[in-house]
Amino acid sequence: MKVNVFQHVPFEGLGSIAAWLDARGATTSWTRFYDHPQLPDLADVDFIIVLGGPMSVNDETDLPWLVDEKRFIAAAISAGKPVLGICLGAQLIASALGARVYPGKQKEIGWFNIESTSFSPALFQFPKAVTVFHWHGETFDLPPGAVRLARSIACDNQAFQLGKNVIGLQFHLETTPASADAIITHCRDELVAGGLVQSEAAMRLVSPAPYERINQLMAALLEHLTRGIA
Of 1, 5, 152, 192, which is least packed with CB atoms within 10 Å of its CB? Predict the structure, then answer.
């Protein structure tokens, strides 16, 4: 399996996905948009993972590489490649397919529940309710043809699936204690008390069990997306 990872800032990486890829002998390459990005040859990629970042998909004037990234994502989806978008990555998929991305009613930062909204056997199945790690202020409309998989109190579109092999997640199932520490350290200025924003202390007190649950859920989702890829 040849995987290309779209990375937008150095402190948001693969988290638990790295071990899953290593266990399957995947060949992983990176497109680092913060450091002279060069997009891969689509023919040489089996699976694309689009990571998060603090920027907006609407920042094309300041970050012109967003235009090329969205164009590539749309081409990959059209070619039938499996694509996973996480947080900003989900918003990029939505935007690449013509959906609107805009500020949410409130920020959602910390450990909060999502609930499943789809029970079709053809789609990835989330638990009826599960606590996951969030860090986002924007949301999106569903792209044409996509099916909502999960929602939360703060955000109607927490996850979606398009066809068999495109999934966007507004939240972070890949989060490990180390990756949570990295985003807290680099983005703690967003931790303004109120609403659905947990304190740094509360996030750092989380036990290993919630991390294990979301990492297992991510592994199941990756298996679902990559069925049929050697």
Answer: 192
Is the pLDDT reported for residue 223 higher than 90?
yes
pLDDT class of 118 with cuts at 50, 70, 90: confident
pTM: 0.96
Among the listed residues 12, 69, 108, 174, the single catalytic one is 174
Within 10 angstroms of residue 129's Cβ, the number of other Cβ atoms is 11
Q: Is 134 an active-site residue?
A: no
Calculate the average pLDDT of the chain. 95
Among all chains, which residue has been given the structure tokens 């990176």? 30
Could you confirm whether 172 is annotated as catalytic?
yes
| Contact by Cβ (8 Å): 177, 185 | no
pLDDT at 109 over 80: yes
Output the CA torsion sign for 145, 146, 147, 152: negative
Distance, CA of 6 to CA of 31 (rounded, Å): 5
Q: Which residues are within 8 A (CB) of 198 and not within 5 positions of it... i.e. 6 or more apart? A: 109, 110, 111, 191
pLDDT band at 193 (very low <50, low <70, confident <90, very high): confident
pLDDT tens digit string along 34-45?
998 899 999 999
Distance CA 78, CA 150 (A): 24
For the question of residue 174 being annotated catalytic, the response is yes
Contacts of 20 (CB under 8 A, 6+ apart): 218, 219, 222
**Domains of the chain, earliest start first:** 2-225 (3.40.50.880)
Give the active site residue among 69, 87, 136, 155.
Answer: 87
